[in-house]
């Protein structure tokens, strides 16, 4: 997702990099020339048996340096850039000549683009919230102040919302989770290497500069920034790390509402939930009980003046994109340049397209789909899904390490997987959302409030399995374990990931591997813990679970061995789910291609561009991961992101497949031939 909602809606396994793919519609085909292999992307000087990623992507990397306004650049960014150009045209038309249907997106975008107006209004649009924080005289005021902040999109101290009941995935329940950090993850507060120490120093400097922009004297701002870091460090101390959060059991703790109050006796939860107008409920899921318990003690020990500085900082941070340019630039200096290595701020139109898509994604997406998503795309994608599902069904049915009882359950779960392709069956209703031309920050806050209450109002209601967690123009895909469905937005269902009328082998390597990737998420180290209905339920026999964990440990060890940047290695445990899906998805794509080759029309693919069908399939897979990235961005990704860098998504998967070694005639001791190959699916 481009935008993270303040309300805690758990999005399981969205792919942060380019993924799901399908056939483009007829409106898209004229601009694209189908090809067997992207020959210009190859590096013919590289030996595919030594470094297949370099062979498949070396030419692309040479010809596609990271743009100045990006921290990284990949093939999926190219597609997103084209999508954004289409969205820009839609939004500029809507802003200049609004209709009843397009007025909201046009007014939102037009307000965002009005930089002069935003600069003229200064901090005034945020003054009411700043005054509310300043008026706090004791901790007793905290529930009502937090209720105000959370509704307008300021993620302070904790997050609330709704999520499917872990024991009854058809029903939504209330959820409370840990949060409130300004650095990317809890470990950023405790690493003691020189770069991490310097980063915290720069973070304090950044907070101080932001506070000075709201007329805080320099000395006071510096002191307040130090206070914020100390406070956040204590918040982080009691939060689960990024690896621990991957285990569903670690973040699922159903308790009674009265027990929530006992966890934090100094915080009035009834007052808080009344202030956000939540439905009544008796049970909820507290993802990190120890965090809330420690938070209560921290708040007791912290002077109210320090809590106010923390809240003021997070209010500024959350709203910086819609404040005057001085705030935008300082926010980018730290989060863009220092943290990610990006030297240049993106043009305003690109940022405003992103914000509009994030806040009004289905209103904007409805127009986008009408223009860019041909009617044949959904049918072609479903055909690809059916082929890959057939390959996975065959695989599960013949696994030597799985017992019959577990095999039966696995096949039942596979049969139950639902497919959502392109866009929602029912578009979101924004009629109650007020968008005001000329009020950029207010529009942002009102959409935050709208989304917040959409989540809160679901408490106690049935789960809507037709709802999407990504907007239609998004170049991405995801599997949702609590609903057991795969989701492919229209934004990625077009070239270069799938060429209508193009080479079948290449298409299977690119799009087929993506479909397989999503399907196997239902059977990775996280997804396998959910049953066919989406309930957290252990349906595995003990010996099967042991065999599974032995096979996934092989992947952990393999990816732990990859050096991403300097001396920083890929985290095999953090990336295990995605690595399992990459390996399984590629294997299933090959199996599905070979199974359908004989029945294809006009007949089996022959050599094209000097490559056999199997070679083209592996090249097609690898070229969806072509990327360049700044060292800072790679470091941040490895420390926080469950996806491995593109080089290892490629080499890690192909080196585990004897079929790859055979296709490229690799010797047994070649680097791309693992002596102890890993395989789960």
Q: Would you state the CATH class of the largest domain?
A: Alpha Beta
Number of H- or I-type helical stretches: 26
The count of β-strands is 11
Query: In which order are the strands of the major sheet placed?
Result: 2-3-5-4
What proportion strand?
A: 5-15%
Radius of gyration: 25 Å
Give an overview of the whole structure:
- The protein has helices at 26-29, 52-63, 75-96, 103-113, 115-121, 127-134, 142-151, 194-212, 218-237, 257-263, 269-275, 289-301, 304-319, 325-340, 348-359, 361-372, 376-398, 404-416, 440-456, 504-520, 542-560, 576-597, 613-623, 631-640, 646-654, 658-663; strands at 72-74, 158-164, 172-178, 254-256, 283-286, 418-422, 478-480, 485-489, 563-565, 568-569, 627-629.
- The protein has 681 residues and is α+β, with helices and mostly antiparallel strands.
- The chain contains 26 helices and eleven strands.
What labels would you give this structure?
681 residues; alpha+beta; Collagenase (Catalytic Domain); 2 domains; three-stranded mixed beta sheet; 50% helix; globular; disordered N terminus
């Amino acid at each position: 997702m481009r935008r993270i909602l303040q309300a805690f809606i758990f999005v399981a396994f969205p792919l942060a990099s380019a993924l799901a793919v399908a056939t483009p519609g007829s409106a898209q085909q004229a601009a694209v020339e189908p090809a067997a292999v992207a020959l210009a992307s190859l590096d013919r000087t590289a030996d595919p048996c030594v470094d297949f990623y370099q062979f498949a992507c070396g030419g692309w990397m040479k010809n596609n340096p990271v743009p100045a306004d990006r921290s990284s650049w990949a093939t999926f960014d190219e597609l997103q850039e084209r999508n954004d150009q289409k969205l820009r045209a839609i939004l500029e038309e809507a802003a200049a000549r609004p209709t009843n249907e397009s007025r909201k997106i046009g007014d939102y975008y037009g307000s965002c683009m009005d930089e002069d107006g935003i600069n003229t209004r200064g901090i005034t649009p945020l003054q009411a919230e700043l005054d509310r924080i300043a008026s706090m005289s004791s901790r007793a005021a905290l529930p009502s102040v937090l209720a105000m902040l959370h509704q307008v999109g300021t993620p302070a101290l904790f997050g609330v919302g709704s999520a499917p009941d872990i024991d009854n995935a058809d029903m939504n329940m209330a959820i409370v989770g840990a949060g409130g950090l300004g650095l990317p993850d809890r470990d950023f507060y405790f690493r003691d290497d020189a770069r991490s120490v310097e980063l915290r120093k720069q973070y304090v400097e950044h907070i101080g500069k932001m506070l000075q922009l709201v007329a805080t004297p320099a000395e006071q701002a510096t002191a307040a920034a130090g206070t914020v870091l100390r406070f956040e460090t204590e918040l982080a101390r009691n939060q689960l790390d990024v690896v621990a959060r991957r285990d569903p059991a670690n973040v699922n703790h159903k308790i009674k509402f009265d027990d929530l109050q006992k966890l934090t006796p100094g915080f009035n939860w009834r007052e808080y939930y009344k202030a956000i107008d939540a439905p009544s409920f008796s049970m909820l899921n507290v993802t990190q009980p120890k965090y809330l318990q420690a938070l209560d003690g921290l708040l007791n020990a912290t002077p109210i003046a320090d809590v106010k500085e923390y809240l003021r900082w997070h209010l500024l941070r959350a709203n910086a994109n819609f404040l005057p340019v001085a705030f935008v630039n300082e926010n980018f200096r730290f989060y863009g340049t220092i943290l990610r290595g990006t030297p240049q701020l993106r043009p305003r139109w690109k940022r405003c397209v992103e914000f509009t898509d994030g806040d009004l994604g289905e209103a904007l997406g409805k127009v986008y789909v009408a223009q860019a998503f041909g009617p044949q795309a959904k049918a072609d994608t479903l055909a690809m899904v059916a082929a890959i599902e057939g390959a996975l069904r065959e695989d599960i049915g013949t696994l030597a390490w799985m017992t019959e009882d577990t095999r039966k359950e696995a096949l039942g779960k596979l049969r139950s997987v639902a497919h959502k392709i392109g866009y929602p069956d029912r578009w979101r209703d924004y009629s109650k959302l007020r968008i005001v031309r000329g009020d950029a920050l207010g529009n942002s806050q009102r959409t935050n409030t709208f989304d917040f209450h959409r989540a809160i109002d679901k408490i106690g209601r049935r789960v809507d399995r037709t709802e999407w967690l990504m907007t239609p123009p998004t170049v991405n895909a995801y599997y949702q374990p609590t609903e057991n469905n795969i989701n492919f937005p229209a934004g990625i269902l077009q070239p270069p990931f799938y060429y209508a009328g193009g080479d079948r082998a290449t298409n299977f390597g690119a799009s087929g591997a993506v479909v397989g990737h999503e399907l196997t998420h239902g059977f990775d180290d996280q997804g396998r813990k959910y049953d066919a209905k989406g309930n957290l339920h252990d349906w595995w026999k003990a010996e099967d679970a042991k065999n599974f964990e032995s096979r996934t440990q092989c992947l952990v060890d393999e990816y732990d061995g990859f050096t991403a940047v300097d001396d920083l290695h890929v985290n095999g445990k953090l990336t295990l789910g995605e690595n399992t899906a990459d390996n399984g998805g590629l294997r299933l794509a090959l199996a599905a291609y070979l199974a359908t080759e004989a029945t294809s029309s006009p007949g089996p693919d022959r050599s094209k561009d000097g490559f056999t069908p199997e070679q083209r399939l592996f090249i097609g897979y690898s070229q969806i991961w072509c990327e360049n990235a700044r060292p800072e961005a790679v470091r941040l990704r490895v420390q926080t992101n469950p996806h491995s860098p593109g080089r290892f998504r490629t080499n890690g998967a192909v080196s585990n497949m004897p079929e790859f070694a055979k296709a490229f005639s690799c010797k047994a001791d070649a680097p791309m031939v693992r002596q102890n190959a890993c395989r789960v699916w």
